[in-house]
Amino acid sequence: MKVTLEAVARAIDGTVVGDGSVEITGVAGIREAREGELTFLANPRYEPYLELTQASAVIVSENHRNIGKPLIENPNPYLAFLKAVRLFAGEKERPRPGVHASAVVAPGVSVPPDAYVGPHAVLEPGARLGSRAVVHAGCYIGGNAVLGDEVLLYPRVTVREECVLGDRVIVHSGTVIGSDGFGFVRDGDVYRKLPQVGNVEIGDDVEIGANVTIDRATTGTTRVGAGSKIDNLVQIAHNVQIGRNCIIVAQVGISGSTVLGDHVVLAGQVGIVGHIEIGDGASVGAQSGVSKSVKPGERMFGHPARPLREAKRIEASIRNLPELIQTVRALKRRVEELEGLQEPR
Amino acid sequence: MKVTLEAVARAIDGTVVGDGSVEITGVAGIREAREGELTFLANPRYEPYLELTQASAVIVSENHRNIGKPLIENPNPYLAFLKAVRLFAGEKERPRPGVHASAVVAPGVSVPPDAYVGPHAVLEPGARLGSRAVVHAGCYIGGNAVLGDEVLLYPRVTVREECVLGDRVIVHSGTVIGSDGFGFVRDGDVYRKLPQVGNVEIGDDVEIGANVTIDRATTGTTRVGAGSKIDNLVQIAHNVQIGRNCIIVAQVGISGSTVLGDHVVLAGQVGIVGHIEIGDGASVGAQSGVSKSVKPGERMFGHPARPLREAKRIEASIRNLPELIQTVRALKRRVEELEGLQEPR
Amino acid sequence: MKVTLEAVARAIDGTVVGDGSVEITGVAGIREAREGELTFLANPRYEPYLELTQASAVIVSENHRNIGKPLIENPNPYLAFLKAVRLFAGEKERPRPGVHASAVVAPGVSVPPDAYVGPHAVLEPGARLGSRAVVHAGCYIGGNAVLGDEVLLYPRVTVREECVLGDRVIVHSGTVIGSDGFGFVRDGDVYRKLPQVGNVEIGDDVEIGANVTIDRATTGTTRVGAGSKIDNLVQIAHNVQIGRNCIIVAQVGISGSTVLGDHVVLAGQVGIVGHIEIGDGASVGAQSGVSKSVKPGERMFGHPARPLREAKRIEASIRNLPELIQTVRALKRRVEELEGLQEPR
Fold it and tell me: Which residues of C are catalytic?
């Protein structure tokens, strides 16, 4: 599909600034976009990418400075971009409401008429589905689990008994919510299981990636706050409390009972020990290991994680270590020489 | 639910020492417990937490010293605690025995009358189930696989053909037992698959978390010893041999043919190379990378993993590295000065 | 099963050099083989293992030097070994073609007569299966997804809509292909989802382990090149491009839009940031963190990853750091002494 920028602007209620005859072949994020594609700028933090993006045109809010590329102006660039996505990719089809004949819905469970339950899905006794919920093929919803309105579960998600998902929660395939926490007590030579009788609660507008594991609390509740986004293969242990609007990138592991504030960002493969607190707005760089509580707003990095500035200074020191060793060796020789000069006395 | 400590003590066959009128609202582990909750102390290694726990009361063995909190005495605190868990959380319902109509059980497979096979579970030809086994919805049991007595598989577990699970093994959702080992041989420019014709054997009383992967052996058997406990998202490669009563925390990876002794503890996100041995009772700190065999009882830490004391000394040195560089620079200047003083001669 | 080497040689069209009466009990790779087993040498890079292998006999190409063990000569040792595997392990049974009655195949989807679709598998509208494809129990094939000839999906694999798998692709249980990329834009205090409208394409002869996650592109295609092999629990983010014949070991994470050349090797638990390039033939050591592009053929190691030689020199420096600190302290004392000697002047 190829359309002129002018035509795109009309379709998304925007105004072209610059050459409207440019041909647009698709849409993409500002970092991923290639020539021929249209992108957008909604967050001032991404301004620097305006100079770097390979996109052929950018949707911006009104009265934007000239960047040497055609623009589409619209007061809400993100919503305008969503319209452009639909223009090029088409609306993703929502499955038609209804319960597939092969789904197993326990007696007494009522599925709202506008919800969808796919082939081979299982709803155990007491499970509850919100309005317009979508439960794709092969999902398992345990006893008394609650899914909010417009929840979207991709194929083969497991939600164990008593767990609660808020409105508009999205969960990708293979993810397990409510598995038993890893709780054992040593009894002589063997380990005895500590029953895990709590649950998991996921706030509104949370998105959870594929093959994630979120353990139920030993007692009480493991919690993910509203608006937080969790990438693939993340591990969240029992009794962890995650605040609102956090970003947890792929393969992060958070140990038991640790508390994250709001707006925390954990980059990929970070590990966090149990029983600590990560303050509001703190961020942790990729692969770091956090073993102590982190203050609000602090940026941490490394093994063990340290404040970013300190981590960078240490990292630079390490890089220069072989040179330092040479310097010390040379110094030693020079001191020996100086000592030799004194010897005669 | 709120009951007096006195009432709890009666229900679990214990004796109150101290104020029996305290109101108890729930139960929890000694580190997780909050005010109002009851916990227990079974293992002397957890004694230090007695001073720190926020629990309102503690189940202890008899004749325990005063800790300034009401106690319940019982000769077996763990079993007494389990009773308390049931008092507050209720017994987890065991599914009623039987095979769900939507399960696909191959001809010739006989399910014991006291076992449960859930909706959409699949039992391939030759699969065998022990007495009181529970196979939840969507599990797949491959050809000739064997599940012991009282095995408990949560929804959507895969056990591939020929694998063997001992008695009372618990496996959480999404876990795959018996996937092909990662075995290829290079043939010019391409890799050719090495058929993986071995299996996996899991000992009695093992518990395996969610979305774990345990590969079948190239030939022979990948083995997890009795009583070992494996957390979520762990990777165990082909031909690995894990001893008894090991603790493997989330996101650990163990490479091919490595051998773990008994009572080994691997903290979260540890990586272990292939073809080495980790001795009995050894432990490895979180995120460490182990590239050489580890002696029994040794405590290892770091990248690469070193004995804990050495790792700590090196870690301290690194922390002081920026200061060391300053010291060396200052020394250099002083030596230059001293050399200058000698120059005239 | 026990047979003489002579009998094995006859069965696999080889010639014994040395004692043909040795009894062979099984087959294994050159590193895993134990006494009584037969192994093979196809790749000269594995020559060093010839001295170390515990195998009782080795299949080699013709005119091989004496290694003090009986040999079977055959011009293609790998193919001869595959025959030996079948001799000992039997041919793995291919399921009989057909669609299981419990599978849900959307109207209009045609399954080739020589393909297999297992119990509770789901094929959504527009899905296409190649000749002799095997889709095991509980797999989900999304709308318009395409599976090539002889594709083999183990139980409970998810292939989301529009994704394409080449010929002879093997995917192990629990893996998710085509989950949404982790794409959000910040809008004030909250994150808004960036629709992920691209797909995933997997080249011919790729093998993908268990519980792997491969995200669909934001727009365009996430790609895994022909012949590449991916181990368990690997994360491949949106818009990643992986070349041909790469080896990606367990628990590796590759961030968005990163490009790997051909023949790249990433060892276990490696993390790679987004938007960089890893050149042809480059390799990265276990647990390393790669934050910058890597030149073709370069061998990288560490946190942050550096060229191997440099990483080793730094690692050695760190090991000697406590000693260096002693040296500097002693030097300081000696300089002070020298300065004292000068004082009188």
Answer: 238
